[in-house]
Design the sequence.
């Protein structure tokens, strides 16, 4: 049976082709590779300190060591998993694997400095945010930017299309279709900018965050400065200090909260587009061979927007759990964060699936300007606000009440009814001419 049919999660089955790029960051293989990378870079970094028992590495030795993670293969990952079956400890299995590799590249005499003074969380709490940071930069950010560019283009293309607005679902002062899209562009851009500026936090400081073992073995070294340099400069993360055995996760939670806000905006957008389609403001391109309903041949359903909304909701449920759970840990730590951290890729995958669905759905939209204009022409009552505002300017007595009496009758107010109302007003011909120029299509503001 192929994997698409046997996978429990649709991320690894039905939707795998949409999120396969994320596998390099959030799969078991990805996690192991990032752990190997951190361990190797840490070894190289401490070799630069001139520690007793660890001579400074030659350039060739550094290149050979780095090649372990640069050329990391599925076979290497499997070797680590085989070792883990014996150790029953995933990070220790990485250390033992690296010791084997060091023997093979001539660095065996230094292998006891692998994982020197560290606890597993020094590796987990650097490997995980590093994988997240690089997945965001290399996969997620470009996808969000592509959606923003697509929406910005439509906002510009549709900027002159007058459209009936609706508040509480009822006809309201007209707007422009492009401006309604631009609202979402601006909302998304603000949150996207915030997301790009958030730091990726990492814990690094030994078993309980104090560099106890490091300080005992080499008291002459400023280990706090080393930790800052290694995490902030070598890995490109942001070292948290002070910490317990684990990262606080507060700033990681901020990233998940920000992603959740982006998704919430996209849910709002998907629902609006779904509604506009149901109002016939948009048609959808018909693809030959596609079926909208197993029973009703005429249907062209807004499935891309529905798919997006479902995936965004699922992603947010997990993001919120991550933000609420991760910052809470008993005393120095418990293991509840470990299994939770392994699921970071799940909500990001669902978010990515949703964004790709939105892009696909948007690409199929065809503006039905005829229907939009018909709706405007069928709702002349919406110009009442403009008329009464000009009458206020002219100190006309009780202008709001006059329009209220005209419009709140449950009877159709058309162009002729508005014209008759204006004709009977006790104002100058100049003001009447000004009022006569107001129409649902022109009363769209700035």
Sequence:
């Amino acid at each position: 049976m192929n994997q698409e049919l046997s996978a429990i999660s649709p991320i690894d089955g039905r939707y795998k082709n949409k999120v396969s790029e994320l596998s390099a960051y959030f799969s078991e293989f990805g996690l192991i590779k990032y752990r190997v990378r951190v361990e190797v870079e840490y070894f190289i970094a401490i070799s630069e300190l001139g520690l007793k028992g660890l001579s400074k590495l030659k350039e060739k030795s550094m290149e050979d060591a780095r090649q372990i993670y640069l050329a990391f293969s599925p076979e290497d990952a499997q070797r680590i998993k085989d070792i883990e079956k014996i150790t029953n400890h995933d990070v220790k299995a990485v250390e033992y694997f690296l010791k084997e590799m060091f023997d093979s590249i001539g660095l065996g005499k230094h292998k006891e400095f692998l994982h020197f003074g560290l606890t597993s969380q020094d590796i987990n709490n650097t490997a995980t945010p590093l994988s997240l940071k690089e997945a965001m930069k290399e996969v997620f950010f470009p996808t969000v930017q592509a959606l923003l560019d697509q929406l910005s283009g439509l906002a510009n293309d549709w900027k002159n299309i007058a459209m009936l607005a609706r508040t509480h679902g009822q006809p309201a002062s007209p707007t422009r279709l492009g401006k309604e899209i631009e609202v979402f562009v601006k909302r998304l851009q603000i949150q996207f900018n915030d997301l790009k500026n958030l730091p990726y936090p990492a814990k690094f400081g030994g078993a309980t965050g104090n560099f106890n073992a490091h300080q005992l073995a080499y008291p002459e070294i400023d280990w706090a400065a080393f930790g800052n340099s290694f995490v902030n400069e070598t890995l490109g993360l942001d070292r948290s200090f002070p910490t317990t055995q684990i990262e606080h996760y507060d700033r990681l939670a901020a990233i998940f909260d920000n992603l959740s806000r982006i998704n919430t905006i996209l849910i709002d957008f998907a629902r609006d587009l779904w509604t506009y389609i149901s109002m016939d403001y948009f048609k959808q391109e018909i693809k030959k061979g596609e079926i909208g309903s197993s029973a009703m041949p005429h249907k062209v359903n807004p499935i891309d927007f529905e798919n997006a909304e479902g995936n965004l909701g699922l992603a947010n449920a997990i993001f919120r759990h991550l933000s609420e759970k991760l910052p809470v840990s008993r005393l120095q730590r418990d293991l509840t964060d470990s299994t939770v951290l392994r699921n970071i890729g799940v909500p990001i995958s669902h978010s990515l699936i949703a964004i790709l669905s939105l892009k696909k759905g948007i690409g199929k939209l065809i503006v039905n300007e005829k229907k939009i204009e018909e709706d405007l022409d069928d709702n002349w009552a919406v110009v009442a606000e403009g008329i009464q505002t000009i009458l206020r300017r002219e100190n006309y007595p009780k202008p709001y009440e006059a329009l209220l009496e005209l419009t709140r009758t449950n009877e159709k107010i058309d162009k002729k009814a508005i014209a008759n109302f204006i004709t009977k007003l006790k104002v100058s011909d100049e003001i009447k001419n000004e009022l006569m120029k107001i129409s649902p299509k022109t009363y769209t503001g700035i």
